[in-house]
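<instruction>
Derive structure tokens from the sequence
<data>
Labelled lines for chain and fold
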Amino acid sequence: MSAPRLLVVIASTRPGRVGEHVGRWVIERARSSGRFDVQVADLAELALPLLDEPAHPRLRDYRHDHTHRWSAQVDAADGFVFVMPEYNHSFTAPLKNALDYLVQEWDGKPAGLVSYGGLSGGTRAVTALQPVLANLGIRGVHANVEIAWVAEHIADGRFDATDRHERALEAQLTELAALLG
């Protein structure tokens, strides 16, 4: 039996972002757990234009190659981890755009949230994103990873997780593995 495919989505596209460092930490931990076939979708690399499909995504009548590629990547995933910053008390516009491109491809799959920011650690972004995920049929897991003052944990281009971050991510990956097993 093959390992479930976990798609780690890095949701920040801002130049100089820390999301890439946090994302690499999540990817490394998920891969080293041995429980998943880990794939990566970096929204900065994906560079989806603002939703440009003429038909409603529920119809899956895609016209653009970038949408076909995105659809195939999400469709092939069994579950997700969204690595996301908090911007102005919410989640990023590129993440909303990427979610809105598709409908059926998300349905019924579990997702974990790894958020980061300042004082709140992305809590407000998580709260804003949860109804969007629910509407798409994405099942959120209970164990979130929230990283406060994320810039203090970046050194030499690497995210240095605390024991609390490590325990939270392990709990999230364990929950995802149980749901996908």
Summary: The domain at 5-180 is CATH 3.40.50.360 (Rossmann fold). The two ends are 10 Å apart (CA to CA). Helices lie at 19-33, 43-46, 65-76, 93-100, 123-135, 163-180. DSSP finds six helices and eight strands in the chain.
